[in-house]
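hi! just following up on the protien thing from before. the input was this:
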Amino acid sequence: MNRRWRHVALGIALLGLIVVIGSIGYVMLGFGVLDAVYQTVTTITTVGFREVEPLDRNGKVFTIVLILAGVGTALYTLTVLFELLVEGHVGRAVERRRMDKKIASLSGHVVVCGWGRVGRTIARELALGGKQVVVIDEDPDRLATVTAYPYVQGDASDDDVLRQAGIERASALVAAVSTDPANLFITLSGRSLRPDLFIVARAREESSVAKLERAGADRVVNPQEIGGARMAAFLVQPHVTEFLDVVMHDREIELRLEEIEVAPDSPLAGISISEAHVRDRTGALILAIREPGGDFITSPDARTQVRPGQVLIAIGTPAQLAALTEAATRATTGG
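and the predicted 3d structure came back as:
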């Protein structure tokens, strides 16, 4: 595209130069200034009006040279402009169709509304966690920087825009635009379209948290508050904070934190942690258990019974966590 614009600029500059040279030439042949400019323009555009003044031999030779140079330059400039116009419209249409087809093929993805610093971080972390992402933003300049994810340009509170992003098939919606009122409207729209959708909303002001929750947000996050608490934690408990930071965000180390839901037909269901031999069989360590109602059992002892619908919060290597996931989700096979 930049190359095309350079060609357009070059053509316009050459055309302007030819108009100036042609006008000066006709003035030297005895034309008035306005008549000289008029004669030059009608000549290089091949309009075909008669000469303003009779041309002698020198005037005819000059006009022939002006036609050859001017008409060629004018055609070149118009051709490049036309190509730029067609290329832009067709390119955008092709890109939009490709994007729509890609979004239509997605299911269980996360719709991230807002491509600012918060939105970019969310999308990156989701992608690292194996989630597919669709981005919505109104600013075309921001969307021009989106390279790894399909996107939709428009107002994220608009139902049609949310549908275009595949909200009917999405697993979650993130309202992360820069203002609380906008996030409120996005949350309301998302909840009205999908009552069962998991929605996370960003709040800048403390007073907005309750409003976003009433609007239907399952979780409300204040990035400024979390950022401040994290900075303070580095001063109060630096080693604990750094350990959690490494486990949650450093992809180069083996240790991970993961949540695993216990399936109804899991071999772990209905027996205690000690009877399941979780540590011996998988190597993973269960740090906490979340009950279906939302309460946590922290540091569960060996006698704690594992039940269907509970979520195990475990720590371990990817291989250990994969073994625990298999044990918690696969059905017991008969002998």
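The first strand starts at residue 110 and ends at 113.
Residues 57-104 form the longest helix (48 residues).
cheers
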